[in-house]
Every structure is written in C-alpha cells, then in structure tokens.
Amino acid sequence: DAKTTQPPSMDCAEGRAANLPCNHSTISGNEYVYWYRQIHSQGPQYIIHGLKNNETNEMASLIITEDRKSSTLILPHATLRDTAVYYCIVRVARGGGADGLTFGKGTHLIIQP
Amino acid sequence: GAGVSQSPRYKVAKRGQDVALRCDPISGHVSLFWYQQALGQGPEFLTYFQNEAQLDKSGLPSDRFFAERPEGSVSTLKIQRTQQEDSAVYLCASRRGEGTYEQYFGPGTRLTVT
Q1: What residues are paired with B110 via a beta bridge?
Q2: A21-72: per-residue pLDDT in tens?
C-alpha cells in the first residue's frame, strides 16, 4: 500500500471550514483514497473515499489533485463534535483476502469554540 | 438499525490468563475484521473473515492469538497466556460484502493485562 503523510494536529474555529491535507506521492493507479475519523473512545467511522474525481457526501468533500499525489478532506462547517483523529488511507478497493486497512497516526483535529 | 457490538467493553486480565473477546457484526454483513489499537496509535489490522472463512491472518502478532467465526456471523478473538504488551483496544469491523468500501466499526474492547 502507498504510504500517507498527514500533519499530527490541526486547530480550526467552530463554524469555519476544516481542510485536512494528506500526501500520498507513491499512490498507484488502482488505489483509492479513504478517510476515516475516530472520536475519542469510539471506533473509527468511515467518511468518504475517491479514486480520481472529487467527491462530496453529507459529511465532507474530498479533493484529489490531478496527479493524485495528494488530497484534502474538507469539513465545510466544523462543529465541536468534529473534534477527532482523522485518518487518510490509501488502499486498493478490492484486495482479495488482504482487505485490512492501514491507519497510520492520522491528524488530531481540534475544533475551537 | 443496530451497529457492530462488542463485549465486554472492558476486560482486566492477570498476566498468563486466557481471554475471549466477542464481536457481533451488522446482520447480513459478509466481511469481518479485527484490529488492535495501542494507546496513542492508529488501529492495526489483525485478521479478516469472509463469512466463516478466515482469509487473512497476517496481522496476528503471535500464535497466542486466535480468531474464529464458525457460523459466519459472531466472531471471537481469543488471546492465550496474555502478556502486558497485549494491553490495547481490540476493534471489530464489518462490511456488507466484496465490492463495498465502508467498514463499520464497533466501540472496541479495552483489554488491560496486569
């Protein structure tokens, strides 16, 4: 799997857009970018995934650069409940039996009131 | 609907004891995963089931760790002769099936070995 690099922590003011970067310069053509988050004392929660095109759902938007070497997760109007560790994961969509996710250390996003 | 549930939520074991951790996946989900999360780290993959078949156990740290899913639904992770380094949160996740992307995680079992 391609390695990802994320800043260890970020702050964002409540109500503002939170932009979380992720570098994945060794990503290969069949690897997707996934984002999960983990709120304190809970299990991780899926947010969004994408291959090439930008994606949006009810939780967030995912912007992937044209060369696919980096991406940004955008939470458009951050709330205090968005305080969590955010993980950027690069993985083939269907890896046969090897479907476990590699999480890394993620970015601890702290939303300030 | 009901999500992934795990029991117990907390377990304290004396070094050398055997423990069994249970995971109830979302009903009908084909795929089931176990992860281990040490304090301050991201989850690390342990093993993967598709129905009752254990297709990947490459992440199990030693032969003291054993997982089963005999009827393709509930799964049990067993740790024999627990050691202090086994202290961690053990997370279970399920996925609807092949070709789907989202893994749904349970709240985890926090194991403390004293």
Answers
A1: B10, B89
A2: 999 999 988 889 999 999 999 999 999 999 998 999 999 999 999 999 999 9
Mean predicted confidence (pLDDT) in A70-84: 97
- Cis bond leading into B8, ω under 30°? yes
- Classify residue A96 as left (phi > 0), alpha (psi -120 to 50) or beta: left
The pLDDT mean for chain A works out to: 92
Least confident of A98-102, B13-17, B81-85: A98-102
- Environment class of B28 (CB within 10 Å of its CB; exposed 0-12, middle 13-18, buried 19+): exposed
- CB-CB under 8 Å, A101 with B55: no
Closest CA in chain A for residue B4: A43
| Cβ contact A91:A3 at 8 Å | no
Choose among A97, A100, A103: nearest Cβ to B42.
Answer: A103
Query: Are A74 and B30 in contact, with CB atoms under 8 Å apart?
Result: no
User: Do A55 and A62 contact (CB within 8 A), yes or no?
Assistant: yes
Residue A96 CA, distance from chain mean position? 23
**CB contacts < 8 A (A, B):** 65
- Distance separating alpha carbons of residues A93 and B100, to the nearest angstrom: 8
Q: Which residues neighbour A45 within 8 Å (Cβ) at sequence distance 6 or greater?
A: A36, A37, A38, A39, B105
